[in-house]
Design a protein that fits this description.
This protein is of the alpha/beta class. The protein contains 20 helices and 16 strands. Helices cover 40% and strands 12% of the residues.
């Protein structure tokens, strides 16, 4: 029998990794073949995009699973050439890659039941099973064709692995030179391993890829699962806490306390208006002089003079809260009405759940939708989420096309980008929906040179940048107000999260989540005044849809802020502490234990716990919080966070 050719250990390692990559591609073929009916009308160009995009995620998974094997072969040790050493490395190679191939093969059959790639939550689901071996055997028998595919892949892996042999000693280098060169190769190898596992090179814009990044490679959300591979989704969710199903109440009782399925209702009078949502980076309620008239003994000016003036012509929700504390958590909250509890939705086990957003709901009704963010494309995963949420277009730094306006850190300066936004919107066919995420009010808190010394200094460096973005908003509205679409546009202004506080009143749990929410439509006197009731980011979706006259059944964790009968509340999670704001009180909970009840309007620093004084109020708020958690967790686990009627039921009322 002809022996496999002997080769250099580095070439042999590389060829074996390429062999695994080939098998992952074959797994993608199998995944699509066994589930083809779930990917209807997929065209050849879309298949090409799926397979090309999949290479990034395959390489990440293959580098993760083969980390030990590769490092063993890159170690600057002569013993690595020894037959026993190579035998151990080979055993590790077959075990880790066998598990990876098995995981991929499981989704040949399991995907049709879950409609998403298997995540690490499956380990928790089956960890309590006493007959795990029996369950695996039953699966192997019931899905014998999957078992045959797995066996064929393992045989092919063994065949390809043995096509090359590692030489039993270094051939070219000896002595100190061997160790020096080998050490340099190890350093280079580790660097490329890290790049591959991350899904790209290091940089302030490039975070390690997660499953939602797969949306960047395809146009249809249903194709995301085909771009991914199961080992990758399991690895990237292994440190994510799964949402546990809970049962505090029966289903009937639960729906009487809190039900996110909003029934049909009569349409409002406003109709097919344009909608522009501004998400301002790190803007806090604390920054607004108009919302803090009693601060500093009534002498506080704030740092948002334009937005304060615009607020006089707007409906301002003065007691509004963010549903998360990171930028990436704001996108689901603001555009899709999904709060961030336990884990951020888009990095959780349930990232692929079907959900509705303002973009998808309005797209179905003839709207053009676009997401604007002046950072380099791919930054923060915003583009990936925009695709998953159904936005038609994404406008990033690439589309802006003028690097002269780059701030040197994050992206295009807000003023230039907002003026660009106005010009782009002016070219859109109406009605349109646009979301714009600002970026200049972010660390390292720098200003364009022409504005150095122009803005008032505060106790925090970021406050000059807040004033700059406020000024950029003024420039946008001055330009947009001269455009034909302006009068027929609803503007929503909020923030992604708060900035570090500088007054004691904002250093408490509720202060750290207090953000602005404003509704402005030129000439609409109904959208005027200050609303002191509780509001939150997840209220924006139902509020906008009802304002536009959408009368169908609607799924929304939040409330319509224009509905006087709405049971208003806010919920947010900070680490291991959950907060419910309702009426004049805030309830804090750690796990299943209530940790405090406070009258936050009278006690903004949350120093006086009144739980013992008002146990009935505490019990009532605890029940409501439990109902919210039960609806949220269970619907996430069951993939029920969209209205079944959302695609076809309900319509925007016709113009009068």
């Amino acid at each position: 029998m002809k022996m496999a050719p002997v080769t250099n250990i580095y070439l042999a390692t590389g060829l074996r990794i390429l062999a695994v990559m080939l098998l992952y591609t074959l797994c993608r073929v199998g995944f699509l073949a066994f589930n083809w009916e779930l990917f209807p009308d997929t065209e050849v160009a879309e298949l090409v995009a799926i397979f090309l995009g999949g290479l990034t995620f395959d390489l990440s998974a293959v580098f993760y699973t083969n980390l030990i094997f590769v490092l063993m072969n890159l170690a600057p040790l002569q013993v690595r050439h020894h037959r026993v050493y190579q035998g151990v490395a080979g055993t590790i190679f077959f075990v880790t890659n066998g598990l990876g191939l098995a995981a991929n093969c499981v989704d040949f059959a399991y995907f049709r039941f879950t409609l998403h790639r298997t995540t690490a939550s499956v380990l928790d689901e089956f960890s309590g099973q006493g007959n795990m071996v029996g369950l695996v055997a039953r699966f192997a028998i019931d899905y014998w064709y999957v078992t045959l595919c797995f066996a064929a892949l393992v045989v092919l892996l063994a065949f390809l692995y043995t096509r090359v042999r590692v030489s039993d000693s270094p051939r070219l280098l000896r002595g100190p030179l061997y160790y020096g060169v080998s050490s340099l190769i190890l350093v280079a190898g580790v660097f490329f391993l890290l790049v591959g596992m991350r899904g790209g090179f290091f940089g302030k814009f490039n975070r390690p890829i997660n499953p939602t990044n797969a949306a960047e490679y395809v146009d249809k959300p249903e194709h995301v699962a085909a771009v991914l591979n199961t080992p990758f989704t399991m690895i990237r969710t292994i440190d994510k806490e799964p949402f546990p199903e809970v049962e505090y109440f029966s289903q009937d009782e639960l729906e009487t306390i809190y039900d996110p399925v909003r029934p049909r209702r009569q349409p409002l009078t406003e109709r097919r208006l344009n909608v522009v949502v501004f998400i301002l980076e790190s803007f806090s309620r604390e920054h607004f002089g108009s919302l803090n008239v009693d601060l500093e003994g009534g002498a506080y000016e704030g740092f948002t003079p334009f937005l304060d003036s615009l607020g006089k012509e707007s409906l301002v929700f003065a007691n509004a809260y963010a549903n998360g504390h990171k930028s990436i958590e704001a996108l689901p909250s603001v555009t899709a009405g999904i709060p961030s509890l336990i884990e951020p939705f888009i990095s959780s086990h349930h990232y692929s759940n079907r959900f509705e957003s303002l973009a998808s709901l309005l797209h179905e009704r003839g709207y053009r939708s676009a997401f604007f963010h002046g950072a380099p494309n791919g930054s923060m995963g915003f583009g990936a989420f925009a695709k998953m949420a159904g936005f038609d277009s994404f406008f990033g730094m690439n589309e802006y096309g003028n690097d002269a306006d780059y701030d040197g850190y994050w992206g295009i300066w807000d003023e230039e980008y907002f003026l660009y936004l106005a010009d782009e919107l002016n070219g859109f066919e109406q009605p349109f929906f646009a979301t714009v995420f600002s970026l200049s009010s972010h660390s390292p808190s720098i200003l364009p040179e022409r504005y150095e010394g122009k803005f008032r200094k505060g106790s925090k460096k970021i406050l000059q940048c807040v004033q700059y973005t406020d000024y950029a908003m003024k420039q946008f509205f001055a330009k947009a107000s001269q455009m034909p679409w302006y009068q027929d546009t609803l503007f929503v202004i909020t923030a992604d999260h708060t900035a570090p506080p500088y007054h004691k009143a904002y250093k408490s749990m509720h202060g750290r989540f207090s953000v602005p929410i404003m509704l402005f439509r030129p000439g609409d006197t109904k959208l005027r005044g200050v609303d002191e009731q509780v509001a939150q980011q997840i209220d924006i979706l139902p509020t906008v849809m009802r304002y536009l006259g959408f009368d169908g059944e609607l799924f929304a964790f939040g409330n319509d802020l224009l509905d006087p009968t709405a049971d208003r509340f806010a919920v947010f999670d900070r680490g291991n502490q959950l907060a419910l704001v309702k009426g004049d009180h805030i309830l804090l909970s750690k796990g299943t234990q209530i940790s405090g009840l406070y009258a936050y309007r009278e006690d903004p620093r949350l120093q006086h716990d009144i739980l013992a004084e008002q146990p009935e109020l505490g019990d009532s708020m605890e029940r409501y919080l439990q109902a919210v958690v039960q609806q949220y967790n269970n619907r996430m686990v069951r993939n029920q966070i969209a209205c079944p009627c959302g695609e076809t039921d309900g319509a925007l009322a016709e113009d009068n």
